[in-house]
Amino acid sequence: MSTLNSFVINNDTGGLSKFAFLMQSLTDEVIEELEDKDDELIGSYMERMGEVIAWIGHGDIDRLPDMLRPFAEQVEDRPPVPVEA
């Protein structure tokens, strides 16, 4: 993860590298929670987490796996939270 974090920081063209700490913090928490789980469970969880992160970017519920669509439908109708610069 530190390699990916460094890549994001060093190759930022849109000013988003300031949020790299968030990605690292989230990953650190997930790793801590899953440290006693088997590799298959960890892989499955990370795959689903990646799908949710991708959905946040593209917003297309139809691209989500069936098991994640109910979650997306619950939060999709909420108004967006304004981001302060």
Descriptive account of the structure:
Helix 1 runs antiparallel to helix 2 (20-34). The model has no long low-confidence stretch (mean pLDDT 82). This protein has helices at 2-10, 20-34, 39-58, 69-76. It is globular and about 35 Å long. It is mainly α and 85 residues long.
Give me the Rg, rounded.
Answer: 15 Å
**Order of helices and strands, N to C?**
HHHH
Q: Helical percent range?
A: 55-70%
Q: Give the number of helices.
A: 4
Q: How many strand segments?
A: 0
Structure summary:
Helix content is 61%, strand content 0%. It has helices at residues 2-10, 20-34, 39-58, 69-76.
Element layout with pairings:
Elements: H1 2-10, H2 20-34, H3 39-58, H4 69-76
Helix pairs in contact: 1-2
What keyword list fits this structure?
mainly alpha; 85 residues; globular
